[in-house]
Specification:
about 10% strand, globular, about 220 residues, alpha/beta, 5 strands, five-stranded parallel β-sheet, Rossmann fold
Length: about 220
Amino acid sequence: MTKKAVVLYSGGLDSTTCLAMARAAGFAPCALSFAYGQRHAIELTKAREYAPRVGAVEHLVVEFDYRLVGGSALTADIAVPKGGVGSDIPVTYVPARNTVFLSFALGWAETLGAFDIYIGVNALDYSGYPDCRPEYIAAFETMANLATKAAVEGAGRYRIHTPLIALSKADIIRQGLALGVDFHLTHSCYDPTPEGLACGLCDSCRLRLKGFAEVGVQDPIAYV
């Protein structure tokens, strides 16, 4: 019987590649997405539609309203920066988001009897979010093995897999292409049009376009 792994899946380039890598590693990927009131909710529409097509054997969508917390251009009435990727943590950072997401993933993994969680964080071509760093992931993994009945009773040890963490965006795209990922089925933009066209100017679009340019492949999604 193939072991299950919970994969955090936004419908974006990174998380889709991460799911493909989990599948290639021999796991049955259980995709976990969130409807949290995000500005770019088009990503969730795509995630719901495409999860089975990118290899998920199950897909759970958790709904909660992070707009009540606010504090981010993705969850509050704050403009998404369009001036380029800077050195400071941008306002697109959502307070403690990965901690919340990983906590849901841990709970579902324990329910499924799975001990592997995949998250597509990246600490190279990214916007400087503190919850994408290796030391954060290591700390969460330690906590997971202290805080769960399954780990404390010795049923297994939780592992947080971060196969993209040290890759450039170009290398992530290369990995995805090698695994047969159809990047037309992904969405990255923080501020898309109502029709779902990517803006081409936010941090996420800039990093994506830069990656495809470095690979020498045309990005298949539509931009304004």
